[in-house]
Amino acid sequence: MIKELINKENLNRAYLKVYRNRGASGVDGMEVHELSRHFGHYGEQYALQIASGTYYPSAIKGIEIPKSNGKTRLLGVPTVVDRVFQQALHQVLEPLFEKDFHAYSFGFRPQRNTHQALAKSLSEINSGRKYIVDIDLKSFFDEVRHDVLLNLIHDKVRCPLTLKLLRKFLRAPIEINGSLHKRSKGVPQGSPLSPLLSNILLNELDKELEKRGHEFVRYADDFSIYLRSKPAAKRVGNSIFKFLRDKLDLPINREKSGLRTPYNFNLLGYGFVPTYKKGERGRYQFVVEKSKWQVLKQKLKYLTKKTVPASFDERIQRINRLIRGWTNYFKLANIQAKLKQLDEWLRNRLRYCIWHYWKKPERKRKNLIRLGIEQGQAYAWSRTNMGGWAVAQSPILGTTITVSRLKQRGYLSLLDYYKKVKHH
Fold first, then answer.
1. pLDDT tens for residues 29-44?
2. Cα–Cα distances in Å, from 421 out to 106, 219, 269, 337, 414?
């Protein structure tokens, strides 16, 4: 297997993947764009070291990023060189394990995605399994035991050099605020290997759930089990808790885990509400989780902040990128009414930006006249004492900086784009 790993074609694929993903530099400060030249000089030397078992990874750079709940998550960023070899290792390991992964595991797998996981969840709820065991693994990526994981991999990988390299990647120390810390457990988020390794470990959970005949959905370390009665859900929740604790040595976050019904259950940013369509009584449909609306609005607010240094066209491009990404992800939900409201608010934010760009009263007067306002009215509005936000919401800008004029400048309506992707 080590020969497959250092095969030129495999390494080239790994290099391209790392290059396209970009990402931060590691402890050595080397950037992704420097990789090509670096491998031109040292590539053969690295390959020889890996083939002989003398390659040693660099320390991982620990970066704390804020979470929505005010806490932080520790990311482990390997050097770009180590990322290439980790990706190369991922590419030779994945085909061995992928064929044995469960159909209800949807995270970080080829031809699998969040929308499939959500469709499976909704299907189970609408089939009558309305009692949901929702389990959150406590700091999963920090808690994975190396010996448990390596034993599972050893069952399929008999190449000692490949296992030795994997062990070195797992054990590489992490640098936090200038200090090195040894690691005897954990698979740092930020590594090309971590998604595959998490699936290898949690596939043991999938097999256990299948053996017991349960319907479930797993997306990486986020998983839920669907049952028809409350007593059954309680019983299953307790037994799975023991399995995770005793067999996989994984602690559960008790605060975030529990027995749910569709009303208080969220999955991958989506919530569930009853549908009131004729003939669909007792069925549920998707809505967007409240916090996701808040995050979207905060991002749009920042992009339309008058003090952010950007031309109007640059703002529009950034807003459109955000709208496309967010809407494509949440297109499964029924959100037309909320998008219509958000569109109106966003258009007023854009009008506010334009009013601010005009700055001087005389420029405002001339622009209003160009947009069809009578001279006397244009003069009065250009000298108004009203605040910019109040003017943006007034008829004077609503009837001049119209939706069609904004669209001519590239504005993308949330509602229009949602309707477009919804019907594809």
1. 999 999 999 999 999 9
2. 22, 24, 18, 16, 11
